[in-house]
Amino acid sequence: EQAHIPAKIRYTTPRDTIIADGWSGLFGDFVARFAGRFGRVEPRRRMVSYLRGLLSEAERKNGWTLAEAAGDAGPQGMQRLLNHYLWDADALRDDVRDAVVEQIGDPERGVLILDETGFLKKGIKSAGVARQYSGTAGRIENSQIGVFLAYGSDQGRALIDRELYLPKDWLADRERCRAAGIGDKVEFATKPDMGLRMLKRAVKSEIPSRSTAEYSQPHERPNRQIGHARPGHFNKIVLRALRACRRITCGFLGLTLQVSALTAYTLFSG
Questions:
Q1: Residue 73's beta-bridge partner residues?
Q2: How do residues 80-116 score in pLDDT, each as one tens digit?
Q3: Measured between alpha carbons, how far is 249 from 210 in angstroms, rounded to an integer?
Q4: Nearest 10 degrees: CA dihedral of 194, 111, 52, 22?
Q5: HSE (CB half, 13 Å, CA atoms) of 169?
């Protein structure tokens, strides 16, 4: 049973920056599902502010702009959410998946969709950042790569899982990994392997679906067969939301919150 939190915690931030008017209450109900994943009031409030910031109309998404959207003087509070407060990113991911199934699950026509997207970066400290091919830019750029699993049916589309791709050079430098919050037990995995890992989690959860569609970048060989392909593509609203959030500086915890924000957007924005 999901923990209940007061409406003032669920809904109120100093500045309401949700993209679409009229669904703030639905958004509040959505994030209230995750309250039990955050043990104290402060990280719960920060989580709500962080997601609202991701869904704001600000062109750039980083600690400073998210803090500004929340009415904070600096980014320290948002940074604590990612690198200080204790919360289970995988458990939150499962909560998001369950919310999606409740809203748009269809055992007859549901489909799982795998794709990747790039997050263009300027620095060298963000987890997994490297000069690598990015579909966002259509060329080799300094970027992070995320592999995503979406669920789709006739009722809509939404993201349900994520993996952050870590190049071999990163994992060969464990000091650099530790500085970025990457554990010593994390091993290299190809993007197709990450996709398979996410599919196995979805199957284990008994998510209602009949087929899987997979999309490779133009420079890659077609990935191994992982299911019965079904014609189609990511829902345009998901792609628009991804483009809006691409510039956020995120590691694994941030990527989980980004998936949560995009899921809220696709479920409740119409």
A1: none
A2: 998 888 888 899 999 999 999 998 999 988 888 888 8
A3: 35
A4: 180
A5: 7
Closest by alpha carbon to 86, among 33, 31, 32, 38?
A: 38
Question: Global pTM?
Answer: 0.72
Distance CA 162, CA 74 (A): 28
Look up residue 138 and give its amino acid: G
d(CA 48, CA 69): 12
Max Cα separation, the chain?
51
Q: Which residues pair with 116 in a beta bridge?
A: 147
Q: Counting every residue, how long is the chain? A: 270
What is the per-residue pLDDT across 117-157, written as a single tens digit (0 to 9) for each? Answer: 888 998 999 999 999 998 888 899 999 999 999 998 888 88
- Of 192, 234, 230, 188, the closest CA to residue 213 belongs to 230
CB 153 within 8 A of CB 104: yes
Query: What is the DSSP pairing of strand 111-120 with strand 130-134?
Result: unpaired
Strands (E), 27-155: 111-120, 130-134, 139-153
First to last CA, the chain: 27
Location of structure tokens 């199957």: 203
Give the Cβ contact number of residue 139 at 10 Å: 9
CA 216 to centroid of chain Cα atoms: 19
Roughly what angle, to the nearest 10 degrees, separates helices 41-54 and 252-268?
60
Query: What three-state secondary structure class fits 21?
Result: coil
- Helix (H) or strand (E) run with residue 211 in it: strand 211-214
| CB neighbour class for 200 (10 Å; exposed up to 12, middle 13-18, buried from 19) | exposed
Best CA proximity match to 247, nearest among 59, 74, 72, 57: 59
